[in-house]
Amino acid sequence: MIQTLEWTDQGVRFLDQTKLPTEETYVTCKTHEQVADVIRNMVVRGAPAIGVAAGMGIALGVNNSKAESVSDLKRDLDQICDVIGETRPTAVNLFWAIRRMQEKFERIRVWPIPQIKRTLVEEAQRMHAEDIAANQAMGRHGATLMPSEGGVLTHCNAGALATAGYGTALGVIRAAVEQGKKIHVYADETRPFLQGSRLTAWELMKDGIPTTVISDNMAGAMMHQGKIAAIIVGADRIAANGDVANKIGTYTVAILAKEHGIPFYVAAPISTVDMACPDGGHIPIEQRNPKEVTHIAGKQMVPDGVAIENPAFDVTPAKYVAAIITEKGIARAPYGQSLQKLAGTESAVEV
Question: Where in the chain do CATH 3.40.50.10470 domains reside?
């Protein structure tokens, strides 16, 4: 399994996704500030991986604290969480991880400081293991929705690289292939950061899953030609009503899917569902560096002075989503009810 990130004795080790697919190199962070930079600069990306990275960054920061009292340690924890929380605004898993670490601290703050530090490190490692298990469960549920053979389109990267391992949308595809389904993946290149052509294609090629990269503006033509039997994507935040924030361009794919009668599925852990967010209009959309649009491989591709828009995400209304696949089961419309039920259940169901 691809090791996206891991806790080591030297620090938190990340596969540098900005160097893929041509270089497989790793970055080891020794401070929480370095972890924040890694998240902000997309060395690690994908909502579930960002959540685990945040947990590990907080644990690393607390572990490095020189505080001699629990109250001082709490002060340091709050400062660490502020630094981590300012990195990526759209991915709700980031804030889920921060809350989880804060709540864990509150439950154990009467313990000796060395034990608090050890326990927070263990909590971050537990989040890592839980994410992989959740992805594998998601894969088992979602594989039932995949065609027995044919093309499956995906946008951006929702694979092992976007998680602690195995993947969400690509985890579903992996599970379907493991069950013997003959799937050919069409990966949108996903401009401007090229997560599809750089990352999705790289990890599926490693797994030996047939993959074709297409430019984003080819998706409609592929559907019209009958090459696409299903579409599956990940998510960075899902509102309580089922509206889905995912990489910019996902909304376009969903509309094209609706026009062509192709099911459009979303795979994401329950931690990505934000029941406090009523609808997609309340999801903050991150604006990224214009250079991601203006330059490719360091070469400027647009005239000087031209205006640039670079939102990292768009929102797909729930009406375009055929099902939302989670580790706890599959949700269907009306999502306001089904997501609430899944969020509160301990067992796998379809609702």
Answer: 141-350
